[in-house]
């Protein structure tokens, strides 16, 4: 390329001819414009590189004072500086970054300024200039920015696999601070349900600004699925463990990175708040309750309260109500709906009052056996969930005793066992527990008494005794003989009524001498009395 031709043809040469002294020509540039490329944010002191075809020289062909010129930058806003600032006849210049505040690719991609060479001294009006264009290179200097400072969604807790899908409103336009996540309807939280959609933008261009959603951080994050392109977050599995009874909310961080997931990273909080679903059933503390009437038949000896718990997290799903659903003949008893307290009706109707009075006045007519009712505890959730318990109302002169029986069979037939024990004890029997007999809960009966433990069971039962308790020994013998194994070991059962401490002994050695004492013959002791006693003391 011919380096001299373009400047020689420039207008500045002509101006110099008009205004300058004869024989004095203005300084001139080797190129009439210059171009360079520099990274955005380049630090102070970074040199602008002018490669081919640019020659960074200013020349003045005059001699002496007429060949001296100053070099300045115009329209530069302080971004660059040039050196040297004075030249004589010929100067190579260098331009460096002075202040990089404006070197922001996201603000502008090019910067223009002008280099001016002005003759000093008498020829001060002789000048020439060259335009410089600086192109900025984009640098990955921006992180992805989520459109919301946090994403918060409210969804119902775990339930059965559902069909409804939540729809989350998308950000209408990509501006910071716009609230986007709004759940339109309330689905059950099952696999595939959309939880939220996160969005992030990145101001950088090209790959530097290409955002992918890379992962979800936090406990139970495997229950969520994140679409790397759309930022859509869905429930990944039906066994997601989002249980309102565990926690009211679950917190995560969603990560996004530019360069398609390998560059700058940013995170945003995602909070899933759970709405309680009525998925817990009220359950009673006890399968059965025994309450004793006072002799007046108006009250119970202790407050007769049944209690059920509902483990749901919120009202009304965990609010429990009580009602009697069967056995309350003649409506004699009232169960408080909220407190669960059972009382004897005394003032609800004249007829009942009269009837109760008559019962009290005429003790002979009183049904002395226990009354059994079924009560229900239900919650106020939708739909209701409920469970039941049994209430035994026991007459004033009732005695109950919890006893353990070792019986044949593992497990034994429950109905047969109940019938056998009722015959055996003469009382009303309620079986509370049946478990394998381990052999150590009672002393071995004899040398041969241990070998068939694996065929026996321990039955824990409550026996109700009242004034009608009676043992029919013949009936008992029949029943026992029906059981071959039992009959091999048992010849006779004795019911000791008179001692006041019901103690049941099976005695195979001495059938003629029923033994009611504490040190009864150990030969065939099959029962363990003296357990915690529910006993009404009649006064
Ligand atoms: Ca950038
Ligand atoms: Ca970026
Ligand atoms: Ca419930
Ligand atoms: Ca619940």
UniProtKB/TrEMBL annotation:
Q: Protein name, please?
A: Cadherin domain-containing protein
Q: Which GO terms describe its cellular component?
A: plasma membrane
Q: What is any one GO biological process for this UniProt entry? A: homophilic cell adhesion via plasma membrane adhesion molecules
Purpose? Cadherins are calcium-dependent cell adhesion proteins. They preferentially interact with themselves in a homophilic manner in connecting cells.
GO MF: calcium ion binding
Topology in membrane: Single-pass type I membrane protein
Is Iron-sulfur there in the keyword field?
Answer: no
| Record-linked PANTHER family | CADHERIN-86C, FAT ATYPICAL CADHERIN-RELATED
Bias-annotated ranges (Basic and acidic residues): 504-516
* Keywords, ordered alphabetically: Calcium, Cell adhesion, Cell membrane, Glycoprotein, Membrane, Metal-binding, Repeat, Signal, Transmembrane, Transmembrane helix
Which segments constitute the Cadherin domain? 30-146, 147-284, 306-405
Query: Where is the organism placed in the taxonomic lineage, from the top?
Result: Eukaryota, Metazoa, Ecdysozoa, Arthropoda, Hexapoda
| Source organism per UniProt | Timema cristinae (Walking stick)
> Where in the cell is the protein located?
Cell membrane
In which broad location class does this protein mainly occur, judging by the first location in its UniProt entry? membrane
The keyword Nucleotide-binding is assigned to this record: no
Region labeled Disordered — which residues?
502-525
